[in-house]
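User: structure tokens for this one?
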Amino acid sequence: MGRILSCVIKFLQDEFDGEDLNADEDGMVSFRLDDDRGHEWGCLVFSDEDSEQLMFYSVVLDTASEAQRNEVMKFVTLANYGLHIGNFELDLDDGEVRFKTSMDVEGVEVTEAICRNLMELNFMIMGRYFEGLRAVMAGSAAAADAIADIEDDDDDDDDDDDE
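Assistant:
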């Protein structure tokens, strides 16, 4: 097991008590996450020891139907605009939607703090967009409306911080 994957597994075992972690020899770890709002999604960690890269994905457990993919694509595009770190991805062939954070760790010691930052940011952003994304995937919301609701909620939270 390489240096990147070793650190990832140690962090996940410490953080999640090693529950339901599935690791393979190809440098991938998978597990499911339930956030504090009751949302559940799949998580994948890939380590490429040769190119020294670490990638973390939160994956929506169901897929966008073919009929909804254009609207989901619009949601993904609107959500990605302005994100500083990470991005949503949509597989147009099968409708899988995921959020990715990644980094090049060449020449860098991979620490639990690096793993925590990469994964917790991913969890936070997926949690922020999850309900709106699922509504668009289900056809019960338009992409622009769902994004506007998310951004309005964020603006309201920022206003509360100013008081």
